[in-house]
Design brief:
alpha/beta; UDP N-Acetylglucosamine Acyltransferase, domain 1; 2 domains; five-stranded parallel sheet
Length: 269
């Protein structure tokens, strides 16, 4: 028991830079108090002492502002930061090294018996005010943005934001962003604001154009290579370099000229 408490305290120091001393964590972290009380109430629940387990859970809610149903399964090094308003349902399952912030709900979407609440893998982080609802699975390393509402499974190492939540940083997205950045650098274009999760419709359109150019460039290169291997002589000259920055510099110079005209205007004429 004491080894688990020591492990919990060390996890606080790993994830909260505001923690200063062991005594401070022991006395001033309600998230830790709620977890420790839950472990006792969960044992009572498994021992079929249901009323006593629920009563202890209710007392914990009064003391900490955190409601964890005694039937919930909690892994090692679980950390609830700040904690007020956190609600964890009875069939929820939480893996190791999971972090929840204040206002998080691991809730259900129906009144039917059975599995009704989420399952969180290892190293999951749920942001403040987020709602994770239903018997869904959040994969290892998954992240949920603050105030998001998640009602579908989340793959490993993916990030979900919004209402309803959508994935903005999956493995496929990271690969696509990397391809866009390489292509943009090749074409002399600043890759800023062309990421796959950018909400700007113009930036999204530019990103799609870069994807298309990157794909066409790869296809043409492959085609030229095959033709040359068959004895042809194509693509011997490099394509002229396109520097978008030159157009931007021209536009900046034109804007400065317009400013000079405005400054030189005499309203008394």
């Amino acid at each position: 028991m004491f080894s688990r408490i020591k492990e919990d305290i060390n996890s606080v120091f790993d994830r909260d830079p505001a923690a200063r001393t062991v005594f401070e964590v022991l006395t001033n972290y309600p998230g830790m108090h709620a977890i420790w009380i839950h472990r006792l109430s969960h044992r009572l629940w498994k021992a079929d002492c249901l009323w006593l387990a629920r009563t202890l859970s209710t007392v914990s809610r009064w003391l900490t502002g955190i409601e964890i149903h005694p039937g919930a399964v909690v892994g090692r090094r679980f950390f609830i930061d700040h904690g007020m308003g956190v609600v964890i349902g009875g069939t929820a399952e939480i893996g190791d090294d999971v972090t929840l912030y204040q206002g998080v709900t691991l809730g259900g979407t129906s009144w039917k018996e059975g599995k009704r609440h989420p399952t969180l893998g290892n190293n999951v982080v749920i942001g403040a005010g987020a709602q994770v609802l239903g018997p869904i699975y959040i994969g290892n390393g998954g992240k949920v943005g603050s105030n998001s509402v998640v009602v579908k499974d989340l793959p490993e190492n993916a990030t979900a934001v919004g209402i309803p939540a959508r994935i903005v940083n999956s493995k496929k997205d990271r690969e696509q962003s990397s391809n866009r950045e390489k292509a943009a650098q090749k074409f002399g274009f600043d890759a800023y604001a062309v990421s796959v999760d950018n909400p700007d419709p113009v930036a999204k359109a530019i990103g799609r154009m870069i994807d298309h150019m990157h794909l066409m460039d790869d296809k043409v290169s492959s085609l030229c290579k095959e033709v040359n291997q068959l004895g042809g002589e194509v693509c011997q000259k490099d394509l002229p370099e396109l520097r978008v920055g030159e157009f931007v510099e021209d536009e900046i110079a034109a804007a400065k000229r317009r400013e000079n005209v405005v400054e030189s205007f005499d309203p008394q004429i």
